Amino acid sequence: MQTLIDLLLLALTTGLCNNFVLHYFVGICPFLGVSRRIDLAFGMGMAVTFVMAVAGLLSWSLTYFVLRPGAPLPDAIWHLAGGEGSLDLSILSYLVYIFVIASSVQFVEMYVRKFNPALYKSFGVFLPLITTNCAILFACLEILKHLQTPDALWGLHEALVYAVSGGLGFTFAIMIMAGLREELDLCDVPRPLKGPGIALCVAGIMAMAFMGFTGVDQSLSALLSH
Amino acid sequence: MQAHPLKQASLVIVLATVFALILAAVQLGLRDRIAQNKQAQTLSQIPLLLPGADLKKTVTLKAALEQKTIAIYQAFDANDRLLGYVVPAQGAGFNDQIELLIAYDPSLQRLRGISVISQKETPGLGDNMTKPAFTKSFAGKKPGQIHAVQPGFAASETEIDALSGATVSSQSVCNIVNRVTQGLRLQGGQP
Amino acid sequence: MQEPTAGERFLNGLLPENPTYRQMLGLCATLAVTNGVKPAFTMACSTGFVLICANAMISLMRKHLQPHLRILIFTLTIATFVTVVDRLLQAFFYPMSQQLGPYVPLIIVNCIIISRCEVCASKQSLPIAIADAVGQTLGFLIGLVSLASLRELLGNGTWCEFEILPQSWPRWRILMLPPGAFITFGLTLGFIEWFVHRKQRA
Question: A141, B126, C71, C148: which could form a disulfide with B166 (CB 3.0–4.6 Å)?
Answer without folding.
Answer: B126
